[in-house]
Amino acid sequence: MVGYLHDEGAHYREVELYLTDAKFVVQPGGRLRVIREQRKNVHAFVRATVTETGGLHREALIRKCIRKITYDPYTMDTFQDQDGQMITEAKDVFISCGRVYA
């Protein structure tokens, strides 16, 4: 599930999004609260511009954005790629089926 904000408020639904100029944000206090309470809360997100795909199909977007990005507040304090490298920003991001690629 992806949540996003726009002028009419917050919306949550399954979507595919292509983002540009992305910043991956983890709020440390929220992460510590998750660990302390053993309960999810919104404290990590991607701040970016939602962009048209420029005619690229899903497979082409995944090939363009080849690093799978993950975040687990119990095991990491930042977003990371599949190789464990810290990710704080990315020029292009593709979100599909609950997965994030940069």
TL;DR?
The protein is an alpha+beta fold.
Features:
single chain, 102 residues, alpha+beta, 7-stranded antiparallel sheet, two-stranded antiparallel ribbon, 2 helices, 17% helix
Account of the protein in words:
With 102 residues, the chain is of the alpha+beta class. It has one domain (2-101). 17% of the residues lie in helices and 45% in strands. It contains 2 helices and 9 strands. A 7-stranded antiparallel β-sheet has the order 4-3-8-9-5-6-7. Strands 1-2 form a two-stranded antiparallel sheet. The longest helix is centred in the N-terminal third of the chain and has 10 residues, at 28-37.
Cα Rg: 14 Å
Inertia-based shape = elongated
Structural class, from helix and strand content? alpha+beta
Give a short account of the largest sheet: 7 strands, antiparallel
How much helicity do the residues have?
A: 10-25%
Which stretches are poorly predicted, pLDDT < 50 over at least 5 residues? Answer: none
Overall average pLDDT: 84
Please trace the helix and strand order, writing H or E for each element.
Answer: EEEHEHEEEEE
Per DSSP, the total helix count is 2
Number of strands: 9
Distance between the termini: 18 Å
For the largest sheet, list the strands in their spatial order. Answer: 4-3-8-9-5-6-7
What proportion of the residues form beta strands (DSSP E)?
Answer: over 45%
| Count of discrete structural domains | 1
